[in-house]
């Protein structure tokens, strides 16, 4: 028999449970923007104290209810409970919330009710834990659930549970170990003294702490699988999973995770590090990019092309040599003044509107890549004077041909426009505004990741989602966001695609693989022309503008650039005023909305439930006896119930591998079972059962004794 | 547990029979069921002693017929002799007209004499010169025989073996048992001091009580199924007859009664089936070549038939 828990033992358990519950509460309160964790912990302490002191239940309940009332009036009403105001507040809250609940208006209940429900939840949890501790002597499932809970929050929410998991694991293992020792000790008749018990569990605690420390200190492999979260998000949002990185002409649907791809695209021999521009886009659709025209006019470009307006040459000619490794027909353009040199039987064509260049083989008239060609490049420098001179007033009378670089989708959320103003209001010129936006991401905690980028859902705007919700992504997120922010300020900007420098093979040779596919921004600065910007975190190296002024001024300029204050990003969970202002809440819409949000969670829960059901089914021989016994306790003692219970026992024995052979008599089977289980009860039971099935009269038997035998046997089968 | 009176009989037998509890029990089963027993084994293992012990325990009149090749039927059933005083033939009844008869070495005598005995066993009466004499009940014959492979014997026709309820083998005693046998036989034969523990009337009552032992439908089905299976076995030329089914049921009733139960369980049937069925099965010649014996066939049949473990429908 289990010895009842000593009070000091319960105290030890409760201390550990308290620490675990603390790890529960922290993320919940953090994620729900609830403060005052100390009061919730105090509530738990009060509850534990009441149990430890073995207060009668009426006293415990009143203490807890008083505490909850006191907390709610103090935090939500700002008055003490036991004053007139406090009681009035409490009564009004109760009346109001009951009214809401009765009319099923669950959206408009006050926070008092939410707090109250949360306390109730803690209360129930405490009761459950108490039950597990004192009756079952096992808290294993609770600990597993805690770890699962924290791991889920750590994965899917901003909460960082790295330490919490380690701590919960340690507390949990110690608690499980102590409880196991408790169960173990209950099998020996002698009663251990307290110090002896402590010595008994001490090696286990030392082991747990030691192993935990060692495990924490050991170096760990990177995860074998990539982060599953973007994948899950992608799948639940209806996307097509992880794509491969590379240059792709279709940009209508941006977002989603990328896998690295080391396929070599081309090699470039160049004196400097260069960005390789291929194409541009002008129309943002809130999901991706398109061009405002279907097919541009195709022209043969003149051998010289200059993408920048009035920049001046600063260096000698750099003869760049490109060797293509793929059959892609596009032609790469560097920044600066340049001139192509290629075999006579090829042509370079350009779509005039987009600036997209491609090559074609002249003779069979089929599009084909030029295997290698050379570009004569003259690098340029910008006039800082001109850049400084890009006052916003100059944008008022732009030519209509710039309209397509100011295009924005109609449903662009207002907060994107507000953010653009916030970022740039302290600086006057277009150039400075562009720089402010370019720097905004790095200074405000955005992260670069190819694996965690989300795909916008039906209702989402790609830029809005990145700027305010995910804050993690790759070049497309950063560059598209910058273009949209600039356009919302009426500064023409376009989205440019191509490749970045790539890995240097030797001093002047660079290998460009699909991994170097990139997108960046070109901003139209009045007086200078289209100037490239690089907003993507981690890529600002090779596109720095060189200026034609002296160093001192340049420094000053750069200092000035850093000055623009970076306004704080609005908190993502900003309350939506319009929604609360609406008088009648559309429950249907609200439910649909909720379903959208909790969809994946529901699916995971369903899968979990299925798994739990399967596990329960497979482990049914463990828990079925308890169920049978409980059922049997409710039923009258008759031959019918005895027969039923006997059949249950036979079933249970089957799980144990004890199956009666068809030609085996019951008595022989009973003998075998008794041998195997080291019991004698089966023979007793079978003798009675034989009488039941082979005799013509139902004799008087001691059902209570039979039931004891049955209970004992069926319990043996679950062991 | 055990029926008290039966237990006393068995205890009494055990005073002289060392370690042959099973044989004693089976003999008593046959006695209670009103059937006859054929004890088969090599000479000298205690067959006769067993019968004598049983007969003495019951206290019924007991006759012993030693079968020899020259024994005549009239030596068994009796003979009519002319009485010069009354000028009439008078019937002198033979030793068969008795409660308990030991037919020793039954296979040593001629078939003619054997059939006289077997007929008396079957009919429960003897007929000489048109006069029928009913043998008083209880009538219990225990025949012994040496295994038929021995020289100078007349094997009993297999069909006639049907008359015996049980055929039992004695077997040799174990080492310790044999020492104990020597110790007891050192001074005087213990059989001489054996006292009866039960009267004929009491035995008759017991036999009636045995018939009251209940056999549930499912157990009857089991018995019939077993019997049918013997007729379908590949090595069996002739399976057991319905009389064998009845015999098995009677024996099972007696055994259940002996075990103190008022109902028969399949265990009883399984336990008794080799003794009841094996001498009634006639094997095909090929069984002999494959070293298959009746006991083996019985085992196979037992393994084939499922034991009833469901309550019979009428009580549901």
Written account of the structure:
Chain A: This is Transglutaminase-like domain-containing protein. Chain A: Keywords: Membrane, Transmembrane, Transmembrane helix. The complex is a heterodimer of chains A (719) and B (316). Chain A has 719 residues and is an alpha+beta fold. Chain A folds into five domains: 7-217, no CATH class; 243-381, no CATH class; 386-497 and 518-562, Roll (C8orf32 fold), CATH 3.10.620.30; 589-618; 620-718, no CATH class. Chain A contains 22 helices and 20 strands. In chain A, the strands form six sheets. In chain A, strands 8-10-13-9-3-18-17 form a seven-stranded antiparallel beta sheet, with no helix packed on it. A four-stranded antiparallel beta sheet of chain A has the order 4-16-19-20, covered by helices on one side. In chain A, strands 7-11-12 form a three-stranded antiparallel beta sheet, with no helix packed on it. In chain A, strand 11 and strand 12 (356-361) form a beta hairpin. In chain A, helix 7 (162-185) runs antiparallel to helix 8 and helix 11 (414-424) packs across helix 14 (475-488). Chain B is an alpha/beta fold and 316 residues long. Chain B folds into two domains: 4-186 and 193-207, P-loop containing nucleotide triphosphate hydrolases (Rossmann fold), CATH 3.40.50; 212-307, Magnesium chelatase subunit I, C-Terminal domain (Helicase, Ruva Protein, domain 3, Orthogonal Bundle), CATH 1.10.8. Chain B is built from 13 helices and eleven strands. Chain B has helices at 4-16, 21-33, 47-58, 73-77, 111-123, 158-161, 175-185, 200-211, 217-232, 242-258, 266-277, 285-289, 294-304; strands spanning 37-40, 62-66, 78-83, 88-93, 100-104, 125-128, 131-134, 140-145, 166-169, 236-238, 282-283. In chain B, the strands form four sheets. Chain B has a five-stranded parallel beta sheet with strand order 2-5-8-1-9. In chain B, a hairpin with a 4-residue loop joins strand 3 and strand 4 (88-93). In chain B, helix 8 crosses helix 10, helix 9 crosses helix 10 and helix 11 (266-277) packs antiparallel against helix 13. The longest helix of chain B has 17 residues, at 242-258. Chain B is globular and about 70 Å long. Classes of the chains: A alpha+beta (719), B alpha/beta (316). Chains A and B meet through helix 20 and helix 21 of A and helix 11 and helix 13 of B.
